[in-house]
Amino acid sequence: MAVKILGTGSFLPEKRVTNDDLAQVMDTSDEWISSRTGIRARHISVEETTSSMAVKAAKIALEDAKIAPEELDHIFVATLSADHATPSTACQVQKGIGAENAVCMDLNAACSGFIFGLQTALAYAKAGMGKKMMIIGVETLSKLMDWKDRSTCVLFGDGAGCAIVEADETRKVMIDAGSKGNMGDVLTCEERHLNNLLVKDDSPMQQVAMNGQAVFKFAVRIIPKSIHKVLEAAEVSEEEIKYFVLHQANRRIIEAAAKRLKEPIEKFPINLDQCANTSSATVPILLDEMNKKGMLEPGDKIVLCGFGGGLTWGSVYLEW
Ligand code: COA
User: Fold this and answer.
1) What is the pTM of this model?
2) How far apart are CA 220 and CA 237, in angstroms?
3) Which of 23, 103, 251, 267 is 20 to 30 Å apart from 34, CA to CA?
């Protein structure tokens, strides 16, 4: 049993903030940011929340999939920036779209979140536990940034992407995933700290902090390794792949991966110049863009790959 994608959707907050806009409020420049990352702009929430963006992307995906919300049996939302610890974002999506028959849960695998969500849906399909499932990657990272740390805050943005899948026997899907908890401290963001009737700790929360060079080295090593693994398992060569849809963190990471895979950069779609890094949302936002532009035909072989905090990584080979 495998899955096929029935439809996609995405949503970006209206407010677009360019590198030049950032240079007005902090010591940075378009030249520094774009030459090191390829990023030129990002979307930042003013009124949107994690759940409101997820609901908007979900409604667009339902329309694209041409199914009713009641047909969904599961909703998996990948996020590290939920509005609430409970109810989960997935339950808020259920309420927002009227998917009354869905079982809903959130998962957090940082920038690999959407890939892990898709792999979860695949496992449910294989186990006979799910037929039509929705996977969302959504982040309001702007609320987790240290806006005084120019080395990280310029890299990220807000947004949501969604895919609806259906269990399907005719398609082939292969996965790879991994985690390296012992490298977790190179990319961190604190949750609420202990503060109760026995412990008083009103110190400020630690926002996103990153050792950029360590993450860069990890990404460049792990992406080709993980992609090779899924292609070997699928018995498909790199040349047969139409697109490698990689997590959008840094253009140089994508270029290095293309070089190591010995594949032309044209096979690696990029939208990080306009959206920056939206963590779990990058892959489904990009996939939706490609879908809406008509870049994908039935039967096309593609690979999705995510990597990031945890550290975590994962790849999925699938047929459109
Ligand atoms: N604007 C201007 N200068 C900046 C800056 C900014 N936004 N951020 C940092 N700098 C300065 C630093 O203070 C430092 O100055 P110093 O040398 O005087 O101390 C210098 O730039 C560091 O530059 P450099 O060493 O060239 O940085 P880099 O080439 O390692 O690039 C990253 C930094 C963050 C762009 C790069 O490491 C990266 O993209 N890593 C991957 C991060 C990522 O994508 N993470 C998410 C993965 S899910």
Assistant:
1) 0.97
2) 20
3) 267
